[in-house]
TrEMBL record, chain A:
Domain of life: Bacteria
Signal peptide (UniProt feature, chain positions): none
Entries under InterPro entries matching the protein: 2Fe-2S_ferredoxin-like_sf (IPR036010), 2Fe2S_fd_BS (IPR006058), 4Fe4S_Fe-S-bd (IPR017896), Beta-grasp_dom_sf (IPR012675), Helical_ferredxn (IPR009051), SDH/FRD_Iron-Sulfur (IPR050573), Succ_DH/fum_Rdtase_N (IPR025192)
Species whose genome carries this gene: Bdellovibrio svalbardensis
4Fe-4S ferredoxin-type domain mapped to chain residues: 155-185
Family indicated by similarity: Belongs to the succinate dehydrogenase/fumarate reductase iron-sulfur protein family.
CC cofactor: [2Fe-2S] cluster; [3Fe-4S] cluster
UniProt-recorded name of the protein: Succinate dehydrogenase/fumarate reductase iron-sulfur subunit
Pfam families registered for this protein in UniProt: Fer2_3 (PF13085), Fer4_8 (PF13183)
TrEMBL record, chain B:
Pfam families hit by this protein: FAD_binding_2, Succ_DH_flav_C
Known cofactor(s): FAD
Keywords from the UniProt entry: Flavoprotein, Oxidoreductase
InterPro entries named among the record's database cross-references: FAD-dep_OxRdtase_2_FAD-bd, FAD/NAD-bd_sf, Fum_R/Succ_DH_flav-like_C_sf, Fum_Rdtase/Succ_DH_flav-like_C, SdhA/FrdA/AprA, Succ_DH/Fum_Rdt_flav_su, Succ_DH/fumarate_Rdtase_cat_sf
Presence of keyword Magnesium: no
Domain of life: Bacteria
Domain FAD-dependent oxidoreductase 2 FAD-binding per the UniProt entry, residue ranges: 38-443
UniProt name for this protein: Fumarate reductase/succinate dehydrogenase flavoprotein subunit
KW Thylakoid (keyword) present: no
Domain Fumarate reductase/succinate dehydrogenase flavoprotein-like C-terminal as annotated: residue spans: 504-637
Length: 262, 638
């Protein structure tokens, strides 16, 4: 390939396990093709490390198409690196200058314990979803899809919120490690659709409570999450979540114990 | 032995097979359902929807995935859409037409009864997904929008921007998480299935490695569902996510489940071309782009001008020229092969000569940039990020790449493998797509299997099978767990000189060169010489750093590559035996003017392979296919 090649110095956070103290180690990434992605650059560094008998740098990744949300770490202080609206797997080396020194470290948050090196545990997100990020529709007997009309504008806005990949960059970018952007995106997606109305209040209350229980910090609306989000999830979602939560906490009626679900 | 392949296709007219069978299936009383446990391996569309539905019915479900979260399953990456015979457009669609298109598109190598059922439940899938809040694209009046996809002349594809797979997966995932909340589904993530435990001839559990701690765990159940996806990563470079593997299916195969049509790999025509030696994977550009994009190459060999400088009359819009009625929407295998021909003729573009143009200039002129950006904006951005080129300003470059695998564990009509109690769903099984998969049909099959087929067929199995209670202290569990531990120890102790990836890349090269878009006897025979050598070297010279008792990514990869090597050999054998060209499986010896030449006389069957022991040749069994509704005919898209 005729593409240009560059040389880099990487300062990478190495941590053997959750209990290990961890620290930075320095590696050279030489002769990196500008067409390679950031993860492919680390692949090459890892191949060298393995050949020398060292432990490769552990990092989460999977689809490498910017959609699965598995990848993500901090490059020079920015979650997913310097490009706007880009996951690290979609970040290409042509965006870096020859000779640069890059600092690479994991997403840091109390609710995201480090597993190894750049890998963190994000299952707190699954528990937030499990606390109400769904619609109670049993399989097999719904009405015809077109019986539920959704204005295009609403469907589009719901889609824009639903597009969150759950990578955790919003948490990592937030000085309080708040999960407000992630949680609000799911609450918005469902609050905007007719299907999501029945459990709307319950959902807002439970998801927010779970988010707090997981140890995520409070939102102070600095907007760092929006700036770091690879999928351009908007801060307006947080406003919507706050409104949903406020309405739910002031108007929700208690569950009746008589009668049951039928 | 061949009698093991009882496809259990119900009798009667195709239109009523499924409804009659559902009535005949045994039921499990709701109060008894919670006494039955089911293991689901994989949490993509098929696995998550199966786990959600079974949990909802009241079964005790344990769901396993290798990922850190089920939301990362590779179904998330499907872009274009999902088919359903809704006929909302009033353009002539029907269950029968979707059935017809799928049987024909699969080049008459799929089971009619399965395909009809798939078409039949397709409409329910859309209803189901809409009801659970999937934000499909809508028209201004609020009704669902549709578009068309390769291989179809009607608009039946439902979509959510270019992220349909993501939205469907998040839908199925959230329904599963709802069951986790309800306590009917227990989720075990970062677990890799490394064996199936068979007791008294029935699947009764699995052995998994906890990828975080390295611990080998045993889990028992009354039935096991494998929904672990496809194996296209056997080619190393493919559109599959890095963790996609054949391991779960392959281990089941080694325990006695037949593996059907392994050589059926779909080559997707619209991927971003290979750029360099360090490349780790290929990125697909949704087939939906072919709705508005026109595919072309320069007419002159070696024309190196910038595409925007090549005038109209010096361009060859070859798909429109060769297939006037389908044009740019020709099926994937046809479009892929044509791209290869143009590049073989020396008219390929890019520095490598291995690319063709996908041009939106006409569409932008016709519809305006805003409309195009609304339809495909995220795909255009993705292309820009990867290549550094702006597809609004100049044509995209695309080339075919390994994508979906139609082969997989052999299953009968009930999605049960040759091991009783072991079911297989979605891409991991071989059913429904035949020799080629049409666009927007994978999501359909995954969800159909999980939401609408398994809840019935598994119930029938559990309701009609006497199952003794087993626990993980049973000898079969111990033996299987010991086997897994021994293999890991063996691998860790090799301490050789070559990295896991280097083996994977070498295997990928062998497979792509000899068992890829075009195959021939000489190439396949050569591959069958090279692969056993590679296998031997792997087991003597692979280097896995670290230890097995904690997170060890290289160890995970090594296990998967070891399985890919064995699968690769079987794929080549399968391709060698199939002396015909059909669908995505193109044997160069069997062609007419560059079109695939099928041999219905000798090969109108499914080839299902039986594992007979380490380093012993597998035995090929046949399931004859009959076509009573869609008559065998040469596929023509002209």
């Amino acid at each position: 390939m005729a593409g240009k090649h560059i040389n880099l110095t990487l300062k990478v956070w190495r941590q053997k396990g959750p209990q290990d103290k961890g620290g930075f180690a320095e590696y050279k990434a030489n002769n990196v093709s500008e067409d390679a992605s950031f993860l492919e650059m680390i692949d090459a560094v890892n191949e060298e490390l393995i050949s020398k008998g060292d432990d490769p740098i552990a990092f989460d990744h999977d689809c490498r198409e910017g959609i699965c949300g598995a990848c993500g770490f901090v490059i020079d202080g920015e979650a997913h690196g310097p490009m706007k609206s880009t996951t690290v797997c979609q970040l290409h080396m042509r965006n870096f200058v020859d000779g640069a020194v890059l600092t690479i470290e994991p997403f840091r948050a109390k609710a995201f314990p480090v597993i190894k090196d750049l890998m963190v545990e994000r299952s707190a997100f699954d528990r937030v979803i499990s606390a109400g990020g769904y619609i109670s529709q049993n399989a097999g007997n719904p009405v015809d899809a077109n019986a539920i009309l959704v204005p295009k504008a609403d469907a589009d806005e719901a889609m824009s919120s639903a597009t969150c990949i759950g990578c955790g960059a919003c948490v990592a970018a937030c000085k309080n490690a708040s999960a407000a952007l992630f949680t609000s995106a799911k609450i918005s997606h469902m609050a905007l659709l007719p299907q999501g109305q029945v459990e709307r209040k319950e959902r807002a209350l439970r998801m927010v409570a779970q988010m707090d229980a997981e140890g995520f910090g409070s939102c102070t609306t600095t907007g760092a999450c929006e700036a770091a989000c690879p999928k351009d999830i908007q801060l307006t979602n947080i406003s919507r979540m706050n409104r949903e939560f406020f309405v739910a906490s002031t108007t929700k009626r208690p569950k009746h114990s008589d009668g049951g679900a039928g | 032995m061949a009698n093991k392949l009882d496809s259990k296709i119900p009798s009667g007219p195709i239109e009523s097979k499924w409804s009659d069978t559902k009535f005949d299936y045994k039921l499990v009383n709701p109060a008894n359902k919670r006494k039955h446990s089911v293991i689901v391996v994989g949490t993509g569309l098929a696995g998550a929807s199966a786990a959600a539905s079974l949990g909802e019915l009241g079964y005790k479900v344990k769901a396993f995935c290798v990922h850190e979260s089920p939301r990362r399953a590779h179904s998330v990456a499907a872009q274009g859409g999902i088919n359903a015979a809704k006929n909302y457009q009033n353009d002539g669609d029907s269950t029968y037409r979707l059935f017809y298109d799928t049987v024909k598109g699969g080049d008459f190598r799929a089971r009619e009864a399965n395909v009809y059922r798939l078409a039949e439940v397709s409409a329910n899938i859309i209803d189901q997904m809409v009801a659970q809040g999937v934000p499909f694209a809508r028209e201004y009046g609020g009704t669902l929008a549709n578009r068309s996809f390769g291989g179809a002349q009607v608009s039946r594809t439902f979509y959510a921007r270019g992220q349909t797979g993501q939205q469907l997966l998040l839908g199925a995932y959230s329904e599963m998480m709802r069951q986790v909340d309800a306590g009917t589904v227990e989720l075990r993530y970062r677990r890799e299935m490394l064996d199936v435990v068979v007791i008294d001839g029935k699947a009764r559990g699995i052995i998994v490695r906890n990828l975080l701690t390295g611990e080998i765990e045993s889990h028992e159940a009354d039935a096991v569902v494998i929904a672990s996806g496809g194996y296209s990563n056997v080619f190393f470079l493919s559109t599959n996510a890095m963790n996609c593997a054949v391991t779960a299916a392959w281990k089941a195969h080694k325990r006695g489940a037949y593996f059907a049509n392994p050589c059926y790999t779909q080559i997707h025509p619209t991927c971003i071309p290979v750029h360099g030696e360090n490349q780790s994977k290929l990125t697909l550009m949704s087939e939906s782009l072919r709705n508005d994009g026109r595919v072309w190459v320069p007419k002159a060999v070696g024309d190196k001008r910038h595409p925007n400088d090549i005038p109209e009359n010096e361009r060859d819009y070859y798909l429109e020229r060769v297939y006037p009625s389908f044009g740019n929407l020709a099926p994937r295998d046809v479009a892929s092969r044509q791209a290869k021909y143009r590049c073989d003729e020396g008219r390929g573009v890019n520095e490598t000569g291995k690319a063709v143009y996908l041009d939106f200039a006409d569409a932008i002129k016709r519809l305006g940039q805003d409309k195009i950006s609304e339809r495909y904006g995220n795909l255009f951005e993705m292309y820009d990020k990867i290549t550094g080129q702006n597809p609004y300003k100049q044509p995209m470059m695309i080339y075919p790449a390994p994508h979906y695998t139609m082969g997989g564990l052999w299953v009968d009509y009930n999605l049960e493998t040759t091991i009783p109690g072991l079911f297989c769903a979605g891409e991991a099984n071989f059913s429904d797509h035949g020799a080629n998969r049409l666009g927007a049909s994978a999501l359909m099959q995954g969800l159909a299997d999980g939401y609408f087929v398994l809840p019935y067929t598994l119930g029938n199995y559990l309701g009609g099978t006497k199952l003794d209670k087993v626990t993980t202290t049973h000898d079969a569990f111990k033996a299987a767990a010991d086997g897994v531990k021994t293999e890991i120890t063996k691998m860790m102790n090799i301490k050789g000189n070559r990295t896991v990836d280097s083996f994977h890349k070498e295997l990928g090269n062998i497979m792509w060169e000899n068992c890829g878009m075009g195959r021939n006897e000489a190439g396949l025979k050569k591959a069958l010489q090279e692969i056993p050598k590679l296998k031997e070297e792997f087991w003597n010279n692979v280097r896995i750093p670290g230890d097995a008792n904690y997170l060890n990514v290289e160890l995970e990869k090594a296990g998967r590559v070891a399985d890919f090597i064995e699968l690769g050999e079987l794929m080549c054998r399968d391709a060698l035996e199939r002396k015909e060209s059909c669908g995505g499986h193109y044997r160069e010896e069997y062609q007419v003017d560059g079109e695939a030449k099928r041999d219905d006389e000798n090969f109108c069957h499914v080839a299902a392979w039986e594992y007979t022991g380490d380093n012993k040749p597998e035995v090929r069994h046949k399931e004859e296919l009959t076509f009573e509704n869609v008559h065998l005919a040469t596929r023509s898209y002209k």
